[in-house]
């Protein structure tokens, strides 16, 4: 499985970004998709996940971020609204089984 993340960038506080993760390869067995992030000096943390059991979100992003998937495009998205400076991090997509994509930088200026 190969993952290609995109959509990061620089945005002002209160703005929005949409991250995309295109998935290729052997995808029929994927049962979990998610987005993690890692800020400088901090551990990587789960932001949002999607599976047959439903969607989950970190408390810090509930009500602002939405994870979704487009099966026809083999893509998982993370819509991020009302961004805050503390959302600044490298964002990684993840699938199980499969692993990690490369990160995409999100920087939110105050």
Describe the structure.
The protein is mainly β and 110 residues long. It is 0% helix and 57% strand. The protein is built from no helices and 11 strands. The strands form 2 sheets. Strands 2, 4, 5, 6, 9, 10 and 11 form a 7-stranded mixed beta sheet that branches. β5 and β6 form a beta hairpin. It is globular. It starts with a strand and ends with a strand.
Chain-wise SSE layout:
Blueprint: E1 2-6, E2 9-12, E3 17-24, E4 32-38, E5 45-51, E6 54-57, E7 65-70, E8 75-80, E9 89-96, E10 99-100, E11 104-109
Parallel strand pairs: 2-11
Antiparallel strand pairs: 1-3, 3-8, 4-5, 4-9, 5-6, 7-8, 9-10, 9-11
Summed up, what is this model?
It contains no helices and 11 strands. With 110 residues, it is mostly beta strands.
Q: Structural class, please? A: mainly beta
E-strand count: 11
Largest β sheet strand count, sense and barrel closure:
7 strands, mixed
Could you give the distance between the termini? Answer: 37 Å
User: How much helix, percentage-wise, in residues?
Assistant: under 10%
- Principal-axes shape call: globular
What would you report as the Rg, rounded to the nearest angstrom? 13 Å
Unreliable segments of 5+ consecutive residues: none
Reading the helices and strands in chain order gives EEEEEEEEEEE
Average pLDDT taken over every residue: 95
Number of helices: 0
Strand content: over 45%
């Amino acid at each position: 499985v190969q993952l290609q993340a995109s959509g990061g960038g620089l945005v002002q506080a209160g703005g929005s970004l949409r991250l995309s993760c295109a998935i290729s390869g052997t995808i029929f067995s994927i049962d979990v998709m998610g987005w993690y992030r890692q800020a400088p000096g901090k551990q990587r943390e789960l932001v949002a996940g999607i599976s047959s059991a439903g969607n989950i979100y970190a408390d810090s992003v509930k009500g602002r971020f939405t994870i979704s998937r487009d099966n026809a495009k083999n893509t998982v998205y993370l819509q991020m609204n009302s961004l805050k400076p503390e959302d600044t991090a490298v964002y990684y997509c993840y699938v199980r089984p499969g692993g990690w994509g490369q990160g995409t930088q999100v920087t939110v200026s105050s």
